[in-house]
Write a structure and sequence with these properties.
By secondary structure, this protein is of the alpha+beta class. It has 2 domains: about 120 residues, 2-Layer Sandwich (60s Ribosomal Protein L30, Chain: A), CATH 3.30.1330; about 150 residues, Alpha-Beta Complex (Phosphoribosyl-aminoimidazole Synthetase, Chain A, domain 2). It contains 9 helices and 12 strands. The protein has a 7-stranded mixed sheet, with helices on both faces. It has a 5-stranded mixed sheet with strand order 1-2-5-3-4, with helices on one face. It is globular. The mean pLDDT is about 95.
Length: about 300
């Protein structure tokens, strides 16, 4: 969890008259059956144009925003896309062609946005999801005895990024995981449709441990899990699995009854929530692990 980000979040909360909608990646507007999220990708922080094309960048930008809606349990529906930078016609055509194709694939309508000049390319997307007939997640919903369930591989994107920094032309399962991440549409749908009790769910955009720490802090619980049960590809390091970001896999704390009810082979039982207030992996406190986290503010 990023200290600077936490400080900024506290400043924002203390500055607002009503901060009750803050706390999750999506704001749940119950009166309108909506979940709303906003995210930005900044050149030099989140992507490098030496190894990602405008086409691939547009697809990834929309997919990572869709992932936030999926992690809330909602159905992605509408998006506003703002593009800032030194834009030219070729870049803009390729970017929006890809954006349109990705939006069609996931049932999202692009309903507006903004174009403006700037020194660095920045993509900001606001996305809205339909919550009707869905059980919507929150970081604060985890409880002692809940199963820690994971969906998708962990560490692949971080491994792919290291490979691309060494060789921008590298093409393998890890670089593809970084450039074109898999988002968990079907499993998110199953969880939000079949879960009857409150549950906590996030994607691993900032890493597995980061997601666990947010849920731990918000729900006042702890977690104990087995490293061997974390889904991952051969070839990734422990650091990449635990702390590597941009996999967009699901991290879910859910009741035992709901886990059985969902009954998906893609949802892996990796551990359990307890009342310790700590995160233990194979009995070792995560505080003892050396970290190489992806930090947006460093």
């Amino acid at each position: 969890m990023q200290n600077k980000e936490l400080k900024f979040i506290e400043i924002i909360k203390n500055s607002l008259t009503d901060s009750s909608y803050l706390g999750d990646d999506c704001a749940h507007l119950k009166d309108f059956n909506l979940c709303v999220s906003a995210d930005s990708l900044v050149e030099g922080v989140h992507f490098d144009l030496s190894f990602i094309s405008p086409y691939a960048l547009a697809k990834k930008a929309l997919k990572v925003n869709i992932s936030d809606i999926l992690a809330s349990g909602a159905i992605p529906k509408y998006a506003l896309v703002c593009l800032c930078g030194k834009l030219d016609e070729d870049f803009t055509k390729e970017f929006y062609k890809s954006l349109n194709e990705c939006a069609l694939k996931y049932g999202v309508k692009i309903i507006g946005g903004d174009l403006t000049g700037g020194d660095k390319l920045t993509i900001s997307i606001t996305i809205m999801g339909d919550t009707k007939n869905r059980n919507i997640s929150s970081r604060k919903n985890a409880k002692e005895g809940y199963i820690l369930a994971l969906c998708g591989n962990f560490g692949s994107s971080a491994r792919g990024l290291k490979m691309l920094l060494e060789n921008p032309c590298a093409d393998n399962e890890f670089t593809r995981a970084h450039l074109d991440p898999k988002i968990q549409y079907r499993v998110s749908e199953l969880i939000s449709q079949k879960a009857l009790e409150p549950y906590a769910m996030m994607d691993s955009s900032d890493g597995l441990v980061n997601a666990l720490e947010w849920i731990k802090k918000s729900s006042n619980v702890g977690f104990e899990l087995s490293y061997d049960k974390i889904p991952k590809l051969n070839g990734v390091t422990r650091q990449e699995v635990l702390f590597g970001g941009e996999d967009y896999s699901l991290v879910c704390a859910i009741s035992k009854e709901d886990f059985k009810r969902i009954n998906s082979p893609e949802l892996i039982e990796a551990g359990i929530a307890n009342n310790s207030g700590e995160i233990l992996i194979d009995g070792k406190n995560i505080k003892e692990e050396k970290r190489e986290e992806f930090l947006h503010f460093d």
